[in-house]
């Protein structure tokens, strides 16, 4: 019969981390619950939507929690409802007491709220994993390479493998993140400080997003473990499990042009080019093929969109540097906007081959191993 | 052929005021447009959704606008699209030039955007009104009495008259705002500084909300004019027209109990009582009748909700003052929450007659002529 008292705010913060794995729209009703396990060491809050599972441990010693555990035990409670109730308690601490089997009373100030729960035996078990030889990485580093690539995943379920982010480790140290929807691609490679075992897996994009919000502290050190169908990412308190996308990711290396193919090399101010594309997009949304036309002729670069019904954009762009041949190329401005958004440096180098071949973007400084690709649209 | 230049931010701010009358979901396609009338005196931006119409005048002398008018004229442009385009222009000013009939070019920096418009003859005319003997009132005062009452309007279309706010002037100076959905009522009366002609009308709640956001400056002095089916509220630059709800509003005066009827008089801390009701609501949402039970017995006041499936709340409330008989009464906690939300003073006086008669709330200080009524729910 569980009995503990705890600081309300600290408990809510932990509850909300676990709740990121809990969806109210799941087919299995038990998964709308949160599992609360109280031991003499602390409290573990577990949530799962079947794809992602989070175990969050609040240690007895946690100073913010000010926890006092009188009796251990376990219970399942309706997650959303439980969070609302705790959130509305009047005092800064509350008591959590199981008064009869699977029924708890929360007491805070003059308020007593009784909640009916379920037996933890009803909760599905998280598939166990071997926790040896972790890949070690800082949360901020992993989040950054996901941000630089995951936006390019496909949202079409027709090729499920492309809805995930392809994460590989080669040569025991080269960590590569790639995403493509077959219209554009983004690839980032970093070199790890510590050697680790090679792997090759595809993470669902939803899991990537959850991961980013669950590990909010960029400085936290993560241990990552792999099995054939799931990975576990954990720090001292949070264990984040996610299933993988099944199947083989296509070979994206062959998409990247070789240096010799390029015929035109331009450098732009990232912010200026992005604003030009923002304006172009307003009009291109009203055209049938949804493209902007870039005309590079001598020293003049012009972006144009022409919608017979709505109007047109005509804009000159001044590149910071230019070398190569003239070219006229059309593409979806949204792809260029998305690509420019994840380039943190002020200048971008864009290289072209022809009007029908993908063009590439790299940050101008080129100290990062970060390349993006956008496929043009054949017009006329 | 219109030609002017203007500060982008100032123009956008004015455009957004007018746009509050423009809905993209209107049956008449012309109403998705904004009407731009340029005279030698300034620019008038007009928008309408058929119920509400806004004319917003930007004077040539407006310092923020930095306007330069070369040629007057009028045009209709697609409102949402036009706003997006202006918002994305690169420089702090832009030129607006009509290059051929109903086609304009916006030029800003290196960017040239051509927009196709329509002839202003296609735009419906706003019904004219006699603008004599206005009621004069500060925007902040009118907004406050709307805030105190409009939340109680009905959302049910079965009695359209109750979906509006009943606004009356009697004795040439008593301005009363009332709203009720037949479960609760809120009534606020203020005395005007200047005498005005009596009136009796019902404002649609949507118009009340628009009015509050259009006149964002509480200190602005408003002139209000009435006709049989619309009112005009205006200050120096904005004219806000709205149609009225047709029909006769029920007599709500008879709902307010006479002093002699009360049998129980309680005073509460507004914030504490509201938090208790917030918690009660969490559980009452899961019950069949959706009520909280208040038991007043001697010096003890208890709020309870019992949901057989979900759980229960049991909470003691300490009143700041009490006189009168014991009582047990059940009601929807949301109505009490809504009522407490609009009481700015720290204490509220609640008086009861019986378990089946409405109870009343007034701010404790009682310097305001502000009364609210909540109808209880008869349980078992």
- From the coordinates shown, what is the CATH architecture of the largest domain in chain A? Roll
CATH homologous superfamily title of the largest domain in chain A: DNA Polymerase III, subunit A, domain 2
The structure class of chain A reads alpha+beta
Task: Compute the separation of the termini of chain A in Å.
Answer: 74 Å
Number of strands of chain A: 26
Give the largest interface pair and sizes. A-B, 31 and 31 residues
Share of helical residues of chain A: 10-25%
Largest sheet of chain A: 9 strands, antiparallel
Uncertain runs of chain A: none
Provide a descriptive summary of the structure in words:
Chains A, B: Residues 254-377 form the DNA polymerase III beta sliding clamp C-terminal domain. Chains A, B: This is Beta sliding clamp. Chains A, B: Pfam families: DNA_pol3_beta, DNA_pol3_beta_2, DNA_pol3_beta_3. Chains A, B: Keywords: Cytoplasm, DNA replication, DNA-binding, DNA-directed DNA polymerase, Nucleotidyltransferase, Transferase. 2 copies of one chain form a homodimer. Chain A is α+β, with helices and mostly antiparallel strands. Chain A has 6 helices and 26 strands. Chain A has helices at 8-19, 79-87, 139-149, 205-214, 270-284, 333-341, and strands at residues 3-7, 33-38, 42-48, 52-59, 68-71, 73-78, 93-100, 103-108, 111-116, 135-138, 164-170, 174-180, 184-191, 199-204, 221-226, 230-234, 238-243, 264-269, 292-297, 300-307, 311-317, 321-324, 327-331, 347-352, 359-363, 369-374. Strand 9 of chain A pairs antiparallel with strand 21 of chain B.
């Amino acid at each position: 019969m569980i009995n503990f008292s705890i600081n309300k705010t600290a408990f809510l913060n932990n509850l909300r981390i676990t709740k990121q794995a809990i969806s109210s729209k799941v087919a299995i009703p038990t998964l709308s619950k949160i599992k609360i396990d109280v031991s003499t060491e602390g409290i573990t809050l577990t949530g799962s939507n079947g794809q992602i599972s989070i175990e969050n441990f609040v240690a007895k010693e946690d100073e913010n929690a000010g926890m006092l555990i009188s009796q251990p035990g376990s219970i399942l409670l309706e997650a959303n409802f439980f969070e609302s109730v705790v959130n509305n308690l009047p005092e800064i601490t509350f008591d959590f007491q199981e008064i009869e089997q699977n029924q708890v009373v929360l007491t805070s100030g003059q308020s007593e709220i009784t909640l009916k729960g379920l037996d933890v035996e009803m909760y599905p078990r998280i598939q166990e994993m071997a926790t040896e030889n972790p890949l070690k990485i800082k949360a901020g580093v992993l989040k950054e390479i996901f941000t630089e690539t995951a936006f390019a995943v496909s949202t079409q379920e027709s090729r499920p493998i492309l809805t995930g982010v392809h994460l590989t480790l080669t040569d025991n140290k080269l960590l590569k993140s790639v995403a493509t929807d077959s219209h554009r691609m983004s690839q980032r490679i970093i070199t790890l400080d510590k050697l680790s075992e090679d792997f090759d897996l595809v993470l669902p994009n939803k899991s990537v997003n959850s991961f980013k919000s669950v590990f909010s502290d960029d400085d936290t050190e993560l241990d990552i473990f792999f099995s054939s169908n799931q990975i576990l990412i954990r720090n001292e308190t949070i264990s984040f499990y996610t299933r993988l996308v099944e199947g083989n990711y296509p070979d994206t290396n062959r998409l990247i042009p070789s240096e010799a193919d390029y015929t035109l090399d331009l450098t732009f101010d990232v912010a200026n080019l992005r604003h030009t594309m923002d304006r172009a997009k307003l009009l291109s949304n009203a055209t049938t093929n949804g493209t902007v036309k870039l005309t590079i002729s001598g020293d003049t670069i012009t972006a144009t969109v022409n919608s017979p019904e709505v109007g047109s954009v005509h804009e000159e762009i001044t590149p910071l540097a230019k070398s190569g041949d003239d070219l006229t190329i059309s593409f979806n401005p949204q792809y260029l906007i998305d690509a420019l958004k994840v380039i943190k440096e002020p200048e971008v180098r864009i290289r072209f081959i022809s009007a029908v071949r993908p063009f590439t973007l790299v940050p101008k400084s080129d100290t990062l191993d970060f390349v993006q690709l956008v496929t043009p649209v054949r017009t006329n």
